[in-house]
Amino acid sequence: MKLTFWGASQQVTGSMFLLETDDYRILIDCGSDFDLDEIGKKTRYEQQKSVFPFEPSLINTVLLTHAHIDHSGNIPNLYKEGFEGRVVCTEPTMALTSLLLKDAANLHQKRLNSRINSKKKGKKKREVPMDYYVEKHVIEAMDNFVPVAFGQRYRIADNVTVIYYAAGHLLGAAHIVLEVYENGEKKRLGFSGDIGRRNYPLLIDPQEIPQVDYLICESTYGNRLHEDRGGTVETLADVIKRTCIDIPGRLIIPSFSVGRTQALLYTLNKLYLDRSFPFIKVFSDSPLAHSSTKVYQKHVRMLNKEARAFQDDNDMLFDFENLIYLESSDASRAVSNYNEPCIIISSSGMVQGGRVEAHVEANIGNPYATILMIGYASEGTLGWRLLNGQDTISIRGKQYPVLANVEKIDVFSGHGDQNDLIQFVKMQDPEKLKRVFLVHGEQQSMAELQSKIQEIGYHSVETPLRGMTYEL
Q1: Which of 8, 186, 193, 258 would you call most buried, defined as having the most Cβ atoms within 10 angstroms of its Cβ?
Q2: For 57, which DSSP code?
Q3: What letter does residue 388 receive in the DSSP assignment?
Q4: What pLDDT is stored for residue 37 in this prediction?
């Protein structure tokens, strides 16, 4: 049995791991790689003549941990290049993946249209990247998804079964445990997916997985501890009071549409019900967030005990009197003319493209505006530059002085920190666990987590490079 690391190897995005038995090939996740720039992608594709470093038609099954694009984003391309098997995941993951892939396809289509228009204007022809797909490819892929329940043993081949365990992090997100029977011996592999936080809004705590022989563990926050230890309601209430009530200001919150925005809306709903806060308008400016919120509401019985009780008491988790969903681009632009204190929640969370970039651009010079970062921002993104305290900043090719306030809280971060990751590993008996593989993290994060894990008795801890294969 062989395990090859084709993505999220000493980097955060592009999760993709290939497990091969004698007669069966399983791909665990099939994510988009955002850590590789366009030049790097072009070089890789020219060398490979494919999006993938393997023959897609030879893959038998894909196991998907959760819906985020860095785990699911290349599934349509897998089918485009000849894959004919199933994608196995939980039911909420299936619903959210459909939304996210269609959103990605829409972005691809816009870029394709832009390239066509450039060609018509006589500009130099630019080739269409291999990893672009459109909505019909998404629909074709989604027809092959198979939903499974948490805790259900699912046989994917004569000698292979899989069980999904709740990972927190996102609705439907899972740890995956594979049982492979080879030469009369049973071997267990555990894939963490993305590990969530305990006591996170809406989501159940990450579940414990059984003893495995090999553990593939994410390390996004492997060298960091969450700074904010207060509750989400108290922390958000403090920010709103300072930015919208004590002064008549505007609070802009860049937020990922799937997962983070739902946690925010639920917390705001609780805040306005439990406290005598003024009814400040809240604008949710993301059609994808609106659609995702409906999926969360539909699967309310898969949320944590507190959220289910809140639903029973109040009928709705997310809708409240002063919330307005902005569907059209015109409605989004019109918010600039709203002069009362307000909260704008918009994507993307790293302020890289999306409608939030326009909101930041319109308010970056406003000393009564606050931009509240609530999660991780990759190096080089606009969110990262804002957090680094630059006096001037470039947005869409224009330079702006930064007069708005920039703040950061991490109570809404969906990733477990170093302590959570170590706790996940410690569920395994070090005498029985043969090897730990660290993935899905920056090199520094992996190195520190590797050291911490080794200190507590797990001696065989690897940080694989892309393309490395291990015999198990």
Answers
A1: 193
A2: G
A3: T
A4: 57
Q: Are 364 and 383 in contact (CB under 8 A)?
A: no
N residues, the chain: 472
**Number of helices (H), then strands (E), in the chain:** 14, 22
* Dist. CA 51–CA 38, nearest whole Å: 13
Question: SS3 for 448?
Answer: helix
Question: What does the angle CA 43 – CA 46 – CA 49 come to, to the nearest 5 degrees?
Answer: 140
Tokens of 312: 């029973």
Instruction: For residue range 53-62, list pLDDT tens digits in order.
Output: 999 999 999 9
pLDDT digits (tens, 9 = 90+) for 348-395: 888 887 899 999 999 999 999 999 999 877 778 898 899 998 899 999
Cα(390)–Cα(403) distance, integer angstroms: 10
Locate 321 and state its tokens. 């009197």
What does R_g of the chain's alpha carbons equal in angstroms?
22
β pairing state of 86-90 and 145-148: parallel
Cα angle 301, 232, 164 (rounded to 5 degrees) comes to 40
Q: What Cα–Cα distance (Å) separates residue 51 from each residue in 43, 112, 126?
A: 11, 18, 18
Q: Check whether 287 has a pLDDT greater than 50.
A: yes
Beta carbons within 10 angstroms of residue 184's beta carbon: 5
Which pairs from 180-186 meet CB under 8 Å and 24+ separation? 180/1, 180/19, 180/21, 182/1, 182/21, 182/22
| Residue 339 neighbours by CB under 8 Å, 6+ apart | none
Q: How confident is the model at residue 124 (pLDDT cuts 50, 70, 90)?
A: low
SS3 category, 286: coil
Could you read off the pLDDT of 18-34 as tens digits, one per residue?
Answer: 999 988 999 999 999 97
Query: What sign results for the dihedral spanned by CA atoms 295, 298, 301, 307?
Result: positive
Of 393, 358, 93, residue with least CA distance to 252 = 358
- Please identify which residue in the block is written with the tokens 């459909």: 98
What tokens does 391 get? Answer: 């006096």
Q: Position of tokens 């925005």? A: 261
